[in-house]
Every structure is written in structure tokens, then in C-alpha cells.
Specification:
Layout: E1 2-6, E2 12-18, E3 27-31, E4 37-40, E5 57-61, E6 68-72
Antiparallel strand pairs: 1-4, 1-6, 2-3, 2-5
Length: 78
């Protein structure tokens, strides 16, 4: 997929985490203030379970200010 961080008021990190995993399984993307920052990523999505919806992920902003993100999914692996 492709991830873009838009409108960042300060530099920071964005973590993409599979919906059924801990933050240690995260894909980390750094972003800069005042720029549109984009990067490609491949991320395992959550599996089927009783507690988590199938095919989910969490985007966690580790920066000091809120940001807008745009996620484009280009395909998937089976």
C-alpha cells in the first residue's frame, strides 16, 4: 500500500500495527512538518478471531500534533 501523512504541524512518527498484534509488529514511517510525506508499506492485517475484526490495522500517531493520513491499498497477498 501507500501511506501519506498530510498537514503535520510538527515532525513525528506514524506506526501501522496489525489489528491483532502488539506495537512491536509495527511498520514505522517518519514524517516532517509542513510537508506531504509518503511511503510504500506492506503490512500483515489481523486474522480471524473472536475479539478482533478480520483484516484490520491500527494507525498510531507518535507525534506531538494530530495529522491527517491517506492510505491507498494496492493489493494483497494470500
Amino acid at each position: 500500500g501507500n501511506l501519506s501523512v498530510v498537514g503535520a504541524a510538527a515532525a513525528g512518527l506514524l506506526k501501522l500495527i496489525p489489528g491483532d498484534r502488539s506495537a512491536s509488529a509495527a511498520t514505522v514511517i517518519g514524517y516532517a512538518q509542513g510537508r506531504i510525506n509518503s511511503n510504500n508499506f506492506a503490512l500483515r492485517l489481523s486474522g480471524r478471531s473472536a475479539t478482533t475484526a478480520w483484516g484490520t490495522f491500527l494507525a498510531r500517531n507518535e507525534g506531538p500534533q494530530p495529522v491527517h493520513i491517506v492510505v491507498d491499498v494496492n493489493g494483497y497477498f494470500e
